[in-house]
Design a protein that fits this description.
This protein is of the alpha/beta class. The protein has 21 helices and 14 strands. 66% of the residues lie in helices and 11% in strands. A hairpin with a 4-residue loop joins strand 6 and strand 7.
């Protein structure tokens, strides 16, 4: 048999939870405290109902719905069945909780109810709840009995009594305790002993009959008075009960009226919500959605960024312009040299060349001037000394004079040209010009950088301005297209639109909250009214109530009177019973021996019955001893053999056999040595326990094979043995064994991914 679907309406902390399972291995993962153990117990609840007594049952009743309910769809032999179970908790007037249970099994293909009045787990599995818990329902193994006599007793107990906790020895002890109640071994105590004494005392009473007529008459008179008071109280109680019932019906009537009003309020709230959602102001744009509001905020963010970028670009342009203005004089001086770097270089080189030429000519003029003077001195010396012809020296002096004069004219002309150039650059001489040129060359790099920066800043300013205008235009278009008003300040318009959207969203949220409040109120009323039959409610609707009388009905005092009368009736009834007993005792003292003989005969019959039960207990003790011995000798070896095979697979052949001797002590073998189960490690003990459960399932389940449920059962198992366990379960899935494995981590998924297919469900 396989579980297809699990749906929990309300069970403990879980509500409206649905899981789809597959054949084979199913892994259900959830964090700690997510409800995995609750889901495990829900599976057992569906098949067997709530376990335990009193408060223990109430722990799975939801505080919200006061119910534990849901269903499981199962497939068995080609048929799909839905097992639907519901437990409703109702608190009575005394505050005591009462559970009302409903369970149905439906064959889904024909929609026909089957197995009515039967326990689904016993129908499908052929075992009771105790056997199911002890075999197919595996919780944290660390809490289970593993190893030695405990492990052996688990097998014996389940086979012998259907419960892992009730074994043959306990049964023998109970039988022996029951035997002791009837008669002690020393024949000096027990019911038989006491009853024999009573019979002896009764025989003595036959001889001691006494009567107190006066006391009997008084008691009979008191009995009549008490009986009259009891009858009067019962009449008054019936009247008050009728009034209380009428008031309860009126309360239901008012609740039904309230339901109609609540239904009208719900319809009105839903209509307002629909009208708000169908608002045409924004041309169908879903302006109340977070993603729309976020889109407007993003436009505002982009617009702010674009504006900031524009301001930064303008500031950069202004800073570059200011730097250019600060360099105005240098730029003007630099521009006076010409915009063409080649022409500037020729001009500067020309001035330098002319300056050099002027200095060279001055040097040559000085040389020829000296030669001219020397020629004159030589002419005078020749003239006075009459050494040579003076004409030659005079001609040489003239030549030197002419050359010097010509050079002086050329130099003066060059100097005039230089002075014009110096005046052009506001310089008096070459030294000032040279100093100016050195400064200009140093500023050239700075001026070039500032000029390029200014150009780049102006281009960037234009780009940022275009982007700002584009985003601004897009924002305006967006606001206009969706029906929002705009101003000259687009950013303020966007903020206003966002505020309007948020207000609209809040309005819708409030409308939705109103709708939900009315819906919850209607659901609560329907849930309360759902406790009553439809025809009962219809009859109340048709009733005519005295509104004034109902409004003036003092429920508190009437309820007190109701309780007082109820207690009075109980007390009077108890008094009557006590009086009846006293009268009977008094009459017994006046009874004749035949009446006492009848009573004695009755006690003797009871004594004989007890003696027969005593013999039956002795026979049962012998039978249990004999049956337990035969079980150990025949069935236990088969279980041990099957469990040993599973243990070998789970331990990869390390432990090849598992033995249960006639004393039900457990030993295991690793192929070489046989050791006591007391030597098992915690992890090995866990897989031994699982192997034993699988063997018991083979032995005990004669109907459908149940799903095998593991609740955090492998927490102490290493990855290698976990893989072995999953491989074994995967192999058993070919025999239609379904496994449901609950875990709080992904270790089982990781290991299972290398083993085979599995179905994963997450419990959030």
């Amino acid at each position: 048999m396989t579980i297809d679907t699990i749906f929990i309406r309300s069970f403990g902390k879980l509500q409206n939870t649905s899981l789809d399972l597959g054949k084979g291995i199913n892994i259900i993962r959830g964090d700690n405290e997510s409800g995995k153990s609750t889901l495990c117990n829900f599976i057992k609840f569906i098949f067997y109902g709530l376990s335990g007594r009193g408060e223990e049952k109430l722990k799975y009743i939801s505080w919200d719905t006061m119910k534990a309910s849901g269903y499981i769809d199962v497939t068995e032999e080609g048929h799909t069945f839905r097992i639907d179970r519901e437990n409703i908790c109702i608190y009575g007037s005394e505050g005591k909780a009462k559970l009302s249970e409903r369970c149905t099994v439906t064959e889904l293909s024909s929609n026909r109810m089957v197995f009515q009045g039967k326990v689904p787990g016993e129908v499908f599995f052929g075992v009771n709840e105790s056997v199911f818990e002890s075999t197919a329902f595996v919780d944290q193994i660390s809490d289970s009995k593993v190893g030695g006599k405990d492990l052996a007793e688990a097998a014996q107990n389940i086979l012998f009594s259907g419960s892992e906790d009730v074994n043959a020895q306990k049964a023998l002890k109970k039988l022996d305790d029951a035997r002791k109640i009837l008669l002690y071994k020393n024949q000096n105590g027990g019911k038989i002993y006491n009853l024999e004494n009573e019979c002896n005392n009764l025989r003595e009473r036959l001889e001691k009959a006494e009567n107190s007529s006066t006391a009997l008459i008084v008691n009979e008179g008191t009995y009549r008075e008490t009986k009259q008071k009891l009858d009067t109280s019962k009449e008054r109680f019936d009247k008050v009960s009728s009034e209380m019932d009428l008031w309860n019906k009126y309360s239901i009537y008012k609740l039904m009226k309230k339901r109609q009003a609540t239904y009208n309020n719900l319809s009105s709230a839903q209509k307002k919500e629909e009208e708000a959602l169908s608002d045409k102001k924004h041309f169908g744009a879903r302006v109340y959605e977070d993603r729309y509001i976020d889109s407007l905020k993003k436009i505002g963010y982009d617009l702010t960024n674009a504006n900031n970028s524009y301001i930064q670009a303008k500031q950069s342009r202004d800073e570059a312009s200011q730097k250019m203005r600060d360099m105005a004089e240098k730029v003007q001086l630099f521009n006076s040299l010409g915009s063409d770097p080649h022409n500037r270089a020729e001009l500067v080189n020309g001035i330098k060349s002319k300056h050099k030429q002027s200095k060279t000519m001055s040097s040559i003029v000085l040389v020829f001037t000296i030669l001219f003077v020397l020629s004159l001195v030589a002419s005078a010396a020749v003239y006075f000394l009459n050494i040579f012809n003076v004409l030659y020296t005079i001609i040489a002096a003239g030549v030197f004079f002419l050359i010097a004069g010509s050079l002086i004219l050329i130099r003066n002309n060059t100097n005039k040209q230089l002075k014009k150039l110096y005046r052009k650059f506001n310089c008096k001489n070459y030294s000032e010009f040279d100093e100016m040129m050195s400064a200009a060359l140093k500023d050239e790099t700075v001026i070039t950088y500032i000029t390029e920066t200014l150009r780049s800043a102006e281009e960037n300013l234009k780009v940022k301005s275009d982007k700002l205008n584009t985003i601004n235009r897009q924002a305006i278009d967006k606001l206009h297209s969706d029906g929002f008003e705009t101003t000259d300040n687009t950013l303020e318009s966007l903020e206003s639109a966002v505020s309007e959207c948020q207000n609209y969203k809040e309005q819708l949220r409030n409308l939705n909250n109103n709708t939900n409040v009315e819906q919850r109120s209607l659901d609560n009323i329907d849930e309360t009214l759902g406790q009553y039959r439809k025809d009962y409610l219809e009859s109340i609707v048709k009733m005519d109530f005295d509104e004034e009388a109902m409004n003036n009905f003092d429920y508190e005092n009437k309820n007190k009177e109701y309780k007082f009368l109820s207690v009075s009736i109980d007390n009077l009834s108890s008094m009557l019973q006590n009086l009846e007993k006293e009268i009977a005792v008094l009459k017994a003292t006046n009874e004749d021996p035949s009446r006492l003989a009848v009573e004695l005969d009755s006690k003797q019959q009871k004594l004989e019955f007890y003696k027969q039960k005593y013999v039956a207990y002795v026979l049962a003790i012998n039978a249990v001893n004999n049956a337990s011995g035969r079980l150990r000798e025949s069935v236990s070896p088969k279980i041990a053999d099957s469990a040993g095979k599973y243990l070998s697979e789970l331990s990869q052949g390390k432990y090849t056999s598992l033995f249960l001797d006639t004393d039900f002590s457990v030993a295991y073998s690793d192929g070489q040595y046989t050791r006591s189960a007391d030597n098992l490690s915690a992890g090995t003990g866990d897989i031994t326990y699982i192997a034993l459960r699988l063997a018991l399932i083979e032995t005990l389940y004669k109907s459908a094979i149940p799903p095998l449920v593991f609740d955090e059962s492998f927490s102490r198992t290493d990855d290698s043995r976990l893989q072995n366990a999953l491989k074994l379960l995967e192999k058993l899935s070919e025999k239609e064994l379904q496994t449901i494995l609950f875990t709080c981590h992904n270790r089982e998924e990781r290991v299972m991914s290398s083993v085979g297919k599995y179905t994963l469900a997450k419990l959030i």
